[in-house]
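U., I forgot to send this yesterday:
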Amino acid sequence: MIQGSLLLVDDDRHLLESMADWLRSQGLAVDTSSGCADALERLRKKSYEMLLVDVRLQDGDGFDLLEQVRRSYPESNVVLMTGYGDADAAVEAIRAGATDYLTKPLIDDELLMCLERAFTQRQVVEENTELRKQLEKHNAMDNIVGQDPRMLKVFDMVESIADTKATVLITGESGTGKSMIARAIHRHSSRSAKPFIEIACGALPENLLESELFGHVSGAFTGATSNKIGKFMQANGGTIFLDEIGTASPAMQVKLLRVLQELEFEQVGGDKTFKVDVRVILATNENLVDEVAKGNFRQDLYYRINVINIELPGLRQRPADIPLLAQSFLEELKEDTNRPVNGFSEEALASLEAYPWPGNIRELQNVVERAVLLGKGNVIVPGDLPRDVLGGPSISIPRIGNMTLKEALEEPERQIILDVLESNNWNRNATADSLGVNRTTLYKKMKKLGLEDGKYAQH
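Result:
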C-alpha cells in the first residue's frame, strides 16, 4: 500500500474516474482534475505530494502545467503520462523537472512501481532536507563561542525567537558581536535560504543612506543616472540588519518607522509604493532610552523596534569565555597564516583574563592576531602581548605648548564647528545640515569638544 496525496489530471473522464478508483484502492488519497486551469485552482486551495498529469489536455499542455507547478508549488512532484510518447519526449520531461514519464496504455504494475519509486524518492529528499535544517540549526552558533551564563541565555533567546517575524533590537558595547548574533538569528530561521543584508547606518550620510535602503529612480539627484534597487528590496523574503540605528537622523527615523509598521516604501525620487516581506533586526551601542529622553530618538520608533531586546554583555563581564575565544581566534589564524602556534602560556592567559577589554571581542581578536604574527615560539607568552594588555605603564601623550597632541589635533575641528554654529545662531539642525552630518553626530562632537549649550569651553 502506498500512502500519500495525489492529484490526477486527465481530460478523458472515463479513464480519469477508473484510474482514480484504482489508485485509491492502493492506499492513495486521490483528487481528480480535467484540465490545467482546474488543476491550478485545486493547487491554490490544497497541497499535493504528487501530480499524475496527461501531456495532452483540452485547455493546455502537461509540460506547461509542469513548469507552473515547479515554479509555484515546488513541494509537489509531477509524473507525466502520454499516449504519444517517445524517447526524446521522455528526456525533455525529465529535464523539465518531471519525476518520471509514462506511456499509455498504463500497466498497473508499471504505474504502481513508478509511484512507489517517486514517493520513496520524495521521502528521501524530505528527510535529507530536514537533516540539513537540523544541521544548520546546530551549526548556527558554532562561530559564536561562549559558555558564560549570560551568553547561554542569549543563545536560548536566539533559538526561541529566530523563526518569528518579530523585530529584534540587539544592544551592547561596540565589538561585542552584534552582527554575529544577527546572522545567527537569520541562519536559525526559515528565511535562512533567502538573503541576509547588512548595512551600517552610521557609515553613510543621510541622503546616501536613504538611497541605499530604499533605492532611487534615474534622475532623482545629481549622479543618479539609472534606477537602483535598495537594500530592503534586496532582502525581500530574508532578513535586513540595520547596525548603528542610534545614529539615524530624525527624518530617517520617520521613514524607518513607516517601513517597520507597514513594510512599504517609495524609492528616492519615485512615486511607486513597494511592499516587501522582510525580517528586520537592528543594533546599537547607544542607550536609546537616554536618547529618547534627550529628544534625539523618536519614542514611537523606539517602542516599535524594541519588541525583542537581546543585550550582549561586554567581554569583561564574561572572563571565563576569554580563553575559549582566544583559542578560537588562534585556530582560525593558524589556518590562514600557517604559523606553528598551538596555544597560550598560563601567564599570557592570566593577562588576557585580567585586562578589561574596552574594545571587547574585536579587540581580543586583534591582540591574538598580533601575537600570532609577531610571536617567535609555538606558544604565545606575555612578551607577545601589547603593553597595555599586560598592565604596563601607558605611553605618555606628547605636549605642544600647553596642549597635548590630542588637544592640538582637536582644535581645528572645534573651531570649524564653532564657526558654523555661530553663523547659524547655534541652530543645531541647520549646523548639522551645513556640515553634512546628522544631528546625533554633531551632538557627540559638541559634547566631546566642549561646545554644549552655546558655551565655548576654552582649554
